[in-house]
Write a structure and sequence with these properties.
The chain is α+β, with helices and mostly antiparallel strands and 296 residues long. The chain has six helices and 15 strands. The protein folds into three domains: 39 residues, no CATH class; 84 residues, HSP40/DNAj peptide-binding domain (Sandwich), CATH 2.60.260.20; 91 residues, HSP40/DNAj peptide-binding domain. GO terms for molecular function: heat shock protein binding; unfolded protein binding; zinc ion binding.
Amino acid sequence: VDGRYSTEDIFRGAGANFDDVFSDLFGRRGGRTTGGFDSIFQNLFGGRAQGFGGFGGQRGSDLLHETFVSLEDVLHGKRMELDLQKNVDCPDCNGSGCFPGTSKIKCLDCGGQGQVRISRNMGFSTFVTVQPCGKCGGRGMMIEKPCKKCRSGKVKGTKHISFELPAGIDNGDYVISGEGESVLDGVSGDLIIRVNVQPHPKFKRDGRDIFFDAQISMMDASLGKNLEVPTLDGFSKITVESGSQPNTITKLKGKGLPGRGFRGRGDQYVRLVVNIPKKLSKDQKDLLKELQDSFN
């Protein structure tokens, strides 16, 4: 710069003060740039750093819909029908944004390319950069005569969509691409489905497995019994062996839930909860006393 620094000085720093180099290049002290890389980019090229291929393409915002599902829905899947309040194509201009009977014209500043080349002289070098066209916003086309109804190609309306929540779904967010807000000449946002699995009145869930507490009497636990227990898809029979202890667990294989990425279903576990009577008649107490004496 001005003959004071050679290329070797600039890249090696030999005998050169980098604050002076930055000051000569960018018109300010090197140690006092406040915007990081973007500030340097702006000084060099006259704009903020842009991602490659990002000219013109605006993206619509995402939409969020929260839904609640049961364990039965997790087992079988669920068909969803939604009426979304969102931007839809204007009926007058069919989403073009142009007055009926007219169409978009090519931007004269960029020749329809959506980008322009900017040359900047920096010392003995010339930097050539490509930037979005400021006149057409990087689109390459312009609306000469806007639609009177919308002026943007979009109006507020309702769109009906249907989709399937798959079996094995869990709590979390699921994305339906392109069903968010739409923008003129841009990319539509996404629809985010936030799934909440509701607690079940009978079953507890742990991943793909479910748990059920079967209430039995003290006599059934002692003498044994064939017992019918509910499952998510009907009923199954289990055998309570004589002398079963409280909290004995029986597994019903394949009676749990499916899981995404897994084959088959999980299991259902049935826990025996033995109910001890709180009040007994005199005759009942005598019988239990007699039973107790028989064990001695």
